[in-house]
Amino acid sequence: EVQLVESGGGLVQPGGSLRLSCAVSGFTFSSYEMNWVRQAPGKGPEWVSYISSSGHTTYYADSVKGRFTISRDNAKKSLFLQMNSLRAEDTALYYCAREFFSGWDYWGQGTLVTVSS
Amino acid sequence: QSALTQPASVSGSPGQSITISCTGATSDISGYNYVSWYQQHPGKAPKLMIYDVTNRPSGVSNRFSGSKSGYTASLTISGLQAEDEADYYCTSFTGSSTYVFGTGTKVTVL
Q1: Does residue B92 register a pLDDT over 90?
Q2: A47 to B36: CB separation less than 8 angstroms, yes or no
Q3: CB-based burial label for A66 (10 Å; 0-12, 13-18, 19+)
Q4: Which residue in B19, B17, B12, B13 sits closest to B37, CA to CA?
Q5: φ and ψ at residue B50, rounded to 5 degrees
């Protein structure tokens, strides 16, 4: 059974940092591209970042470029999102999602990030 | 990159067909056949319903179908059922190697 489990969310002050993790099981992690997608309370989803299966290629939404860094450890079957210089508008439920052609076929349950003083 | 435009709400009676539109631009929908659609029930993660404009993942009902013409992609739900009541979002790959979501459509089954 495919499972994606996010962790690392929490309450952080503006300007602070957090590192999210996504532990996967049930599929060959090293063969799949992965993404982070977030959803602010009461809003629609927003794509955040992409990483290739090898980890050599990454892309970011303009809203997080220069502040967030996506990475992965294929040996540990884990995906990460390092978030720096956090802003109130980064408050959201953060999902990791497995890429399947042009879509995302498996999602975690999400981890909540709240940026507030 | 601006969000793709979807109608805020669409409704239909059980058994009817409804269509949700998703309008973008040259830099996204019309430029690539990389449109996907998601269904989201309250408190749940989005579920992939259509990928690459017209393809259904294994396990998704064939009542769901996708298409594209020019700048607009569409999701059609035929034989509407109570369980189809949810929010629906389109996404498209863009020329900036990024993805953009639609504004979302709330589907109500009357």
Answers
A1: yes
A2: no
A3: exposed
A4: B19
A5: -145, 140
Whole-angstrom CA distances from B28 to B23, B43, B91 are 10, 29, 9
Chain A interface includes B66 (CB < 8 A): no
List the single residue in A50, A62, A109 with the smallest CB-CB distance to B1.
Answer: A62
Name the nearest CA neighbour of A102 among B85, B62, B68, B44.
B68
Reduced to 3 states, what is the DSSP secondary structure of residue B16? Answer: coil
Nearest 5°: the CA angle B65, B89, A108 is 105
Radius of gyration, alpha carbons of chain A = 13
Q: What is the pLDDT of residues B26-69, one digit of tens each?
A: 788 888 899 999 999 999 999 999 999 999 999 999 999 999 99
